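Exercise 7.
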Amino acid sequence: METRANHIWVGAVTLLLLLSAAAFFVWLARLSDRNNKEYDIFYEQSVGGVAEGSVVTYNGVPVGQVTDISIWERDPEFVKVRIQIENDTPILIGTEASVSASFTGVSNISLSGGRSNQPPISCETTDCPEGVPVIPPAPGAIGEILASAPLLLERLATLTDRLTRVLDDDNQNSIAGILRNTNAMSAEFADSAPEVRQTLQELQTTLAQSTETLAAFESTLQTTDRLLQNDGPQISAELRQTLASARAAADSLEQTLANVEPLTRQLNQDTLPAATAAMRDLRQTSATLRNMTERLENEGAGSLLSAPPLPDYEP
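Solution. The predicted structure, written as C-alpha cells, is:
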C-alpha cells in the first residue's frame, strides 16, 4: 500500500511538471507574439508560390513570415494572406505588399512604400474586416499580365485571324509577284549603277560650275552695287537730262507736224491732181517722141515732111 502511494505521488509530480512546462512554453509563445504584429493582405490575382512560412521583407530586410493563406470566406475572388512581422517595423500609410518570385520557386511578400510623415497602418486608419489591419496590395506586373490575359488572348486571336485573311493564296501570289518585281528592279538598278555613278559625277561637276557661276554673279552684283553707289547719282542726273531733251524734241516734232498739216492738206487737194495730169501729158509726149524716133530710124527724115501715102482705091 505504501509502494502504491509513492507511485501516485511520482505520477502526480510528473504530471504537474509537464503542465508547468506546457504553461511555460505557452507563456513564451505569447511573449514572442507580443513582440509581433499581424496584418492581412487581400490579393485579387493569383499568389502562386506563397505558402505558410514564406518570408516577409520590408525593402529587402526580413521582418516576418506568412502565418496563414486561404480563400477569403466573404468574397471568394480574393485570397487572404495573413502575415506576422516584428513590432518595430514601420508599417505606415502608403506601404504596399507585392509578391516577389525567386529562383527557387518560393515567392515572398515584399513590403515597401511607407513614408515617414504618415501615421501607421492600424484599425483606426484602415479597415479591419478580420480583426487586424489591412495592407493594400501593390499592382504587380505579373498580376496585371494575368488580369489582362483574356484580353490579350482575344486580341491575339483577332490578329491571327486577320493575318490568315491577309496571307491567303491570292495575296501570297501577289506578294510573291511584288517580290519578283522588286528583285528585277534591284537587278536593273545594279546594272545601271555605273551610269548612275557617272550621272552623279556629272551632277557634282555641274554643281561645282554652278557654285563658280554663283560666285561670279555675286561678284558682279557687288561690283554693280558699288558702281550704283559711286556713279549712281551722276547716271541718274544724266538720265533725267536725256529724258528732258527727249521731251523737248517730242514737243518740237509735235509743233512741226502741226505746221506741216495745212501744207499736206493743200498738197493732197491741189498739187497732186496737177502733178497727175502732168504725168499723163508726159507719158503721151514720150509716146509721140518714140513714134517719131522710130519713123526717123525706119523711113528717114523725109517721112516727117511728106504726108503719108493714101491707100490705093480700086473701084
